[in-house]
Structure formats: structure tokens, C-alpha cells
Amino acid sequence: MANTSRISKLLSLMLRHRPDEFGLEIDAYGYAPLDQVVQGVQERYSEVAETEIVDLVNDPDQYRFELNEFGIRALYGHSFFVDMDGEPMDPPPDQLYMGTTRSAAQRFTREGISPGDRYYVHLSLTREAAESHSHQRDTPCVVEILAAKAHEEDCRFFARGAVVLTEEIPASCIGPIHGSQQQPLGVAQMPAPSSVSYGRKPRFSAR
Questions:
Q1: Helix (H, G, I), strand (E, B), or coil: what is residue 107?
Q2: In CATH, what is the architecture of 95-189?
């Protein structure tokens, strides 16, 4: 069998970024037929059996993929748009977290958080998990998200494995910044939010 890490990376490439390259028929929610995915993997690693792919995806220690009666999909990180299915978290945790840089964190306090080059904002359930995604070179920088407050302001949060997805976070719901050179910036100290437009929101669907 090919290295499990290599198979996982290939599945990410297929299901998050380049389904057309592998002939996958992706539905609106990111699902592809399992047999098509198996064929695509075996074109790279002919020795990999379907059962090995299924075991990898069903491993309770991995949170990147999902397999059910609808097919197989990546849970987050898509470079193409997928609809959110299922019900949003109700209620979400009081706080969520996002690893970032100091300069970006300060901008978030003024403008809020938009998806940028993604279609959804990706958040972590714990500060420790968010630290691993910080792009700050020295001390990890983590922004605390006031998720309960954002929920009250009609933000919806969708659990996807170890990641939580949402459309955007308003500046009023940015909490303390951890790992900055100064003390964490509290909500009361933050600049007033500016008027920001994020364009048309993606639609959400319940399967």
C-alpha cells in the first residue's frame, strides 16, 4: 500500500482542488462517487484497494474527509464553492479561534473577517489548534472569535470535523488577540468597526 499520508494528500487534491482533472462528478455539497475516487487514486497508486481508502476515511483520528450514502467528500478547504448542508451549530461554542498574523489580526478588529481567497471563514475549536495554523513566524498569533455573540447577530456556524465554517465574522465579534507583542486586545479597546461589504453571500441548504 502507498504511504497513508500520500493517499490523504491525493484525496485532498482530488476532492478540494482538482476534481475535473480526475474525472470526478462532484455534487453541490462536495460529494463524489466512491468508485470514481477509487479509480482516480488507483491511477496514481495501483496497489491501493478500495477497502484501504475506506479505512483511511473512516479513521476516527482523521477529520478531513467524510464517507456516507451520498459519497465521499472533503469536509473543508475547497478552492471551489460547495453548499453547506445539515443544520448549523445551535448554539455554537462561546468562543472559536483563528490562527493568523499580527497585521491581519489588527485589520480584523477594524473590518471583520471575510473568507478571502476561500468561500468560507475557517475557524478552530481550540486556541491550541488555531496556533498550528498561524502564519506568524515567531510567536503564534490567534484571534479569539466571540461566536455566541456572532450567533446572536445571525452568523451561522457549521461543524466540519475539527474545523468550523462560517460566511464572515463582523468586527464587533472579534475578541482578544493572543500572541501579539502587546497584551491581548479586549473588545472594549477595539476601534469602531468600519462599514465593509463582503458581496453576495453563498446560499446554505439543508439536505
A1: helix
A2: Alpha-Beta Barrel (3.20)
Q: What is the pTM of this model?
A: 0.81
Task: Give the whole-angstrom CA distance, residue 204 versus residue 172.
Answer: 23
CATH architecture, range 4-74: Orthogonal Bundle (1.10)
CA dist 134 to 54, 100, 119, 163, Å?
Answer: 31, 4, 19, 14
- Beta strands across the sheet bearing 121-124: 158-160, 163-166, 121-124, 95-100, 141-146, 174-178
Grid coordinates of 59? 479513521
pLDDT tens by residue, 77-126: 999 999 999 999 999 999 999 999 999 999 999 999 999 888 999 999 99
What residue spans in the chain does CATH classification 3.20.170.30 cover?
95-189
